[in-house]
Amino acid sequence: MIEVQDLRITFGAGTPMETPALRGISLDIPEGQFVTVIGSNGAGKTTLLNALSGETIPDTGRVLIDGADVTAWPTYQRAKLAARVFQDPMAGSCANLSIIENLGLANARGRKRTIGAATGKALREKARSRLARLELGLEDRLDDPMELLSGGQRQAVSLLMATFNPMKILLLDEHTAALDPKIAAFVIELTRTIVEERKLTTMMVTHSMRQALDVGERTIMLHEGQIVLDVSGDERKGLKVEDLLHMFEKVRGEELDDDTLLLG
Amino acid sequence: MSLIAFLGTLETGLIFALVALGVYLSFRILQFPDLTVDGSFPLGAAVSAILIVNGVNPFPATLVACVAGAGAGLITAWLNVRLKILHLLASILTMIALYSINLRIMGRPNVALLGEETVFTPLEMIGVPSYVSIPAALAVLIVIAKFGMDRFLNSEIGLAMRATGANARMARAQGINTNFYILLGMALSNALVALAGALFAQSQGAADVTMGVGVIVVGLAAVIGGEAVILPRTVFLATLACVAGSLMYRFAVALALNADFIGLKAQDLNLITALLVAGAMVLPSVRAPVKRALVKDKRVVGPLK
């Protein structure tokens, strides 16, 4: 479903600030797989997600979604294939629009927008039933502006917006990192339910190693723009957070012998 | 203030309500500070006037003026989204260019429309004095424009435009081509302003190349002043605030100029406008300290909103 071939991205190429963000990433994610991505700051996790969603165009390499080469597609065009939830709960919706208007935006994703009313009766019905499943009481607050909602509520609605219309892949960018633990657990549970129910091909970037192993069925570790670990199946089942931490340290330790770091 | 002076002020206020709606679209919806209006207002006037004196029916002439205004807005938006010129600077460039273009269109600094047929001519058949019938007709037009704007901004396309201005990154993630909506919004905004210019020239009896000076400030005065009076919680209220703000501004100016004891003269108009806009802009930040002072004094009990 997602095919990434030798993806390379360098920020500020040719300047003193030159930073290689992705250094040859190749990945093949079959349909319906839930992949978690971990790595330290600057490992290239968000850049990889940006490359998949179209916010960043790679220097070399290709991105294929559902067999279509989307490498040159702008974000808005990819939106009919890829839906995304951002780390910042404020980024996924419009604060000054109401809940129903935000859902109205999501409701038109993937098709041509018309001059017809954006928040008609049919949408209100659909919105109410979807919101009711969050059990946050938002189904009775359709006309409240988004800014009245808490961060957790906004993130839950962002997730709902991302999955409101059919799409091929779901991209989650540390979408629970800015939430308190209780709300984060709620949003993760919600994510799990939606992904399982709709059998979505999902890539979730996370800072939490526990989350990376608990959720999904495959885990990838990025370091310095490269994949250093890719586990799934029984191998992954046997992994504990300590093992992952150990591997993490090993990668970092070994890297001191890597001449790119010593000489670069 | 005499009745005729009152109706005259109303007429100007109604015409500038179109400018306010246009400025609301660029400044508030797209968050695009657009000075193009200082050029597209006289552009609308120039195009309609020159077509009318050359024998074109005033209605299609006014329509062509709108299209010209839309073109001006498109150029500013294109400079911004395609050539990546800062929005404010892009609009200044178009505005300056339009000064020359307007002179070219008219072939001279001004075109008189006295004795020519205008869009207001058919009103003479009603048998009501024109100082009554013109504001009445304009009021109907503004009501249509206001509700048309409400309807548009609540459509799927209008909602996408609002999202473009409010959160462009999120808009793109929802499949919205933000560049397209900036182009569309700027075209619409300047078409409205050009319509105002065309109507203003026809009601005043002349188009003049300098008539655009300060139109953006008048538009801002209407938008910001209106919001200070009517809280723009919904689109309906926001557009209502634009119309109310435009009327309020005109009457405030008329009263200031009529009050002999203050000693203000017509040439003080732009100074008064600038002061009004500055006043309306600082009003929200003045309110907060006042509230705080009241709480401190414990003169206010209960929750504050």
What topology does this entry show?
The complex is a heterodimer of chains A (264) and B (305).
Chain A: E1 2-11, E2 19-29, E3 34-38, H1 45-53, E4 60-65, E5 68-69, H2 75-78, E6 82-85, H3 99-107, H4 121-132, H5 151-162, E7 169-173, H6 181-198, E8 201-205, H7 209-214, E9 218-223, E10 226-232, H8 233-237, H9 241-254, H10 259-263
Chain B: H1 3-29, H2 37-53, H3 58-81, H4 87-106, E1 110-112, H5 130-153, H6 156-166, H7 168-173, H8 178-204, E2 206-208, H9 215-229, H10 235-258, H11 269-296
Helix pairs in contact in B: 1-5, 1-8, 1-9, 1-10, 2-3, 2-4, 2-8, 3-4, 3-8, 5-10, 6-8, 9-10, 9-11, 10-11
Structural account:
The complex is a heterodimer of chains A (264) and B (305). By secondary structure, chain A is α/β, with parallel strands linked by helices. Chain A has a domain at 2-81 and 167-242: 3-Layer(aba) Sandwich (Rossmann fold). Chain A contains 10 helices and 10 strands. Chain A has helices at residues 45-53, 75-78, 99-107, 121-132, 151-162, 181-198, 209-214, 233-237, 241-254, 259-263, and strands at residues 2-11, 19-29, 34-38, 60-65, 68-69, 82-85, 169-173, 201-205, 218-223, 226-232. In chain A, the strands form 2 sheets. Chain A has a 6-stranded mixed beta sheet, sandwiched between helices. In chain A, a hairpin with a 2-residue loop joins strand 9 (218-223) and strand 10 (226-232). The model of chain A is unreliable at 256-264 (pLDDT under 50). Chain B contains 11 helices and 2 strands; from the N terminus they run H-H-H-H-E-H-H-H-H-E-H-H-H. In chain B, helix 1 packs across helix 10, helix 2 (37-53) crosses helix 8 (178-204) and helix 3 (58-81) packs antiparallel against helix 8. Chain B has helices at residues 3-29, 37-53, 58-81, 87-106, 130-153, 156-166, 168-173, 178-204, 215-229, 235-258, 269-296, and strands at residues 110-112, 206-208. Mean pLDDT of chain B is 91; it is low at 300-305. The radius of gyration of chain B is 20 Å and the shape is globular. With 305 residues, chain B is an all-alpha fold. Chain B has a single domain, classed as ABC transporter involved in vitamin B12 uptake, BtuC, CATH 1.10.3470. Chain B has a two-stranded antiparallel sheet. Chain A binds chain B through residues 53-55, 74-77, 79-80, 83-84, 86, 91-97, 101, 104-106, 108-110, 113-119, 145, 161, and chain B through 152, 154-160, 162-163, 166-167, 169-178, 233.
